[in-house]
Specification:
Length: about 140
Protein backbone atom coordinates (compact mmCIF):
# COMPACT_ATOMS: atom_id res chain seq x y z
CA UNK A 1 0.00 0.00 0.00
CA UNK A 2 1.63 3.21 -1.08
CA UNK A 3 2.42 5.97 1.31
CA UNK A 4 2.23 9.29 -0.51
CA UNK A 5 3.94 12.62 0.04
CA UNK A 6 1.40 15.36 0.55
CA UNK A 7 1.93 19.09 0.33
CA UNK A 8 -0.22 21.40 2.44
CA UNK A 9 0.07 24.95 1.15
CA UNK A 10 -1.16 28.16 2.76
CA UNK A 11 -2.20 30.79 0.20
CA UNK A 12 -4.21 33.97 0.06
CA UNK A 13 -7.93 33.27 -0.39
CA UNK A 14 -8.60 35.38 -3.47
CA UNK A 15 -9.58 34.77 -7.09
CA UNK A 16 -6.86 33.28 -9.28
CA UNK A 17 -4.47 32.17 -6.53
CA UNK A 18 -5.14 28.44 -6.86
CA UNK A 19 -5.08 28.69 -10.65
CA UNK A 20 -1.70 30.43 -10.57
CA UNK A 21 -0.15 27.72 -8.39
CA UNK A 22 -1.67 24.90 -10.43
CA UNK A 23 -0.42 26.52 -13.65
CA UNK A 24 3.08 26.90 -12.20
CA UNK A 25 3.03 23.17 -11.39
CA UNK A 26 1.77 22.34 -14.90
CA UNK A 27 4.51 24.48 -16.44
CA UNK A 28 7.04 22.17 -14.74
CA UNK A 29 5.15 19.07 -15.96
CA UNK A 30 3.92 18.26 -12.45
CA UNK A 31 0.65 16.33 -12.55
CA UNK A 32 -1.77 16.76 -9.63
CA UNK A 33 -3.18 13.36 -8.60
CA UNK A 34 -5.34 14.55 -5.69
CA UNK A 35 -6.44 17.96 -4.44
CA UNK A 36 -8.38 19.47 -1.55
CA UNK A 37 -8.72 23.20 -0.88
CA UNK A 38 -10.76 25.17 1.63
CA UNK A 39 -10.82 28.72 3.04
CA UNK A 40 -10.06 29.59 6.65
CA UNK A 41 -9.49 33.04 8.12
CA UNK A 42 -8.76 34.88 4.87
CA UNK A 43 -6.34 32.18 3.71
CA UNK A 44 -6.77 29.05 1.66
CA UNK A 45 -5.44 25.70 2.86
CA UNK A 46 -4.69 23.48 -0.11
CA UNK A 47 -3.54 19.88 0.10
CA UNK A 48 -2.32 18.00 -2.92
CA UNK A 49 -0.54 14.88 -4.10
CA UNK A 50 1.63 15.10 -7.23
CA UNK A 51 3.57 12.76 -9.46
CA UNK A 52 6.86 14.64 -8.96
CA UNK A 53 7.41 15.89 -5.40
CA UNK A 54 10.87 17.34 -6.07
CA UNK A 55 9.65 19.53 -8.93
CA UNK A 56 6.61 20.56 -6.87
CA UNK A 57 8.89 21.71 -4.04
CA UNK A 58 10.87 23.82 -6.48
CA UNK A 59 7.66 25.43 -7.75
CA UNK A 60 6.38 26.15 -4.24
CA UNK A 61 9.73 27.62 -3.24
CA UNK A 62 9.86 29.77 -6.40
CA UNK A 63 6.34 31.03 -5.67
CA UNK A 64 7.46 31.81 -2.08
CA UNK A 65 4.57 29.85 -0.61
CA UNK A 66 4.39 28.49 2.90
CA UNK A 67 3.98 24.72 2.82
CA UNK A 68 4.40 21.56 4.86
CA UNK A 69 5.23 18.09 3.58
CA UNK A 70 3.70 15.03 5.23
CA UNK A 71 3.26 11.34 4.61
CA UNK A 72 -0.27 10.08 4.19
CA UNK A 73 -1.75 6.80 3.04
CA UNK A 74 -3.48 6.24 -0.24
CA UNK A 75 -5.66 3.37 -1.29
CA UNK A 76 -7.26 2.28 -4.52
CA UNK A 77 -10.85 1.26 -3.91
CA UNK A 78 -13.37 -0.46 -6.14
CA UNK A 79 -16.01 1.98 -7.32
CA UNK A 80 -19.01 0.48 -5.51
CA UNK A 81 -21.18 1.34 -2.51
CA UNK A 82 -19.70 0.75 0.92
CA UNK A 83 -15.99 0.65 0.07
CA UNK A 84 -15.06 3.83 1.93
CA UNK A 85 -17.20 2.67 4.87
CA UNK A 86 -15.33 -0.67 4.86
CA UNK A 87 -11.82 0.81 5.02
CA UNK A 88 -12.81 3.61 7.43
CA UNK A 89 -14.33 0.99 9.74
CA UNK A 90 -11.18 -1.17 9.54
CA UNK A 91 -9.04 1.79 10.54
CA UNK A 92 -11.45 2.67 13.35
CA UNK A 93 -11.33 -0.89 14.68
CA UNK A 94 -7.53 -0.51 14.84
CA UNK A 95 -8.00 2.75 16.77
CA UNK A 96 -6.53 4.83 13.93
CA UNK A 97 -8.16 8.22 13.54
CA UNK A 98 -8.79 9.65 10.09
CA UNK A 99 -8.09 13.36 10.36
CA UNK A 100 -9.16 14.12 6.79
CA UNK A 101 -9.70 12.45 3.44
CA UNK A 102 -9.98 13.40 -0.22
CA UNK A 103 -9.98 11.67 -3.58
CA UNK A 104 -7.96 11.71 -6.75
CA UNK A 105 -6.87 9.53 -9.66
CA UNK A 106 -4.08 7.02 -10.04
CA UNK A 107 -1.41 8.07 -12.53
CA UNK A 108 -1.64 6.09 -15.76
CA UNK A 109 -4.88 4.24 -15.02
CA UNK A 110 -7.20 7.01 -13.78
CA UNK A 111 -8.45 4.57 -11.13
CA UNK A 112 -10.04 6.29 -8.12
CA UNK A 113 -7.72 6.85 -5.17
CA UNK A 114 -8.61 7.88 -1.64
CA UNK A 115 -5.99 9.83 0.31
CA UNK A 116 -6.20 9.65 4.11
CA UNK A 117 -4.45 11.81 6.66
CA UNK A 118 -4.23 9.44 9.62
CA UNK A 119 -2.63 9.30 13.05
CA UNK A 120 -0.47 6.22 12.34
CA UNK A 121 0.67 6.10 8.72
CA UNK A 122 2.62 2.81 8.70
CA UNK A 123 -0.01 0.88 10.68
CA UNK A 124 -2.79 2.31 8.50
CA UNK A 125 -0.87 1.38 5.33
CA UNK A 126 -0.72 -2.25 6.45
CA UNK A 127 -4.42 -2.34 7.26
CA UNK A 128 -5.36 -0.73 3.95
CA UNK A 129 -3.18 -3.20 2.04
CA UNK A 130 -5.05 -6.07 3.69
CA UNK A 131 -8.39 -4.37 2.97
CA UNK A 132 -7.44 -3.88 -0.70
CA UNK A 133 -6.61 -7.59 -1.04
CA UNK A 134 -9.95 -8.53 0.51
CA UNK A 135 -11.85 -6.20 -1.85
CA UNK A 136 -10.61 -7.74 -5.09
CA UNK A 137 -13.41 -9.45 -7.05
Amino acid sequence: MPVAKEFTVLMDDRPGTLGKVCQALANRNVNILGLESFPIGGKSVTRFIVDNALAAKMVLDNERLTYVEAEIVQTKLPHRPGEIARVASRLGEANININYAYCGLELGTNMPLVFLGVTEVSKAAQILEQAASAAKP
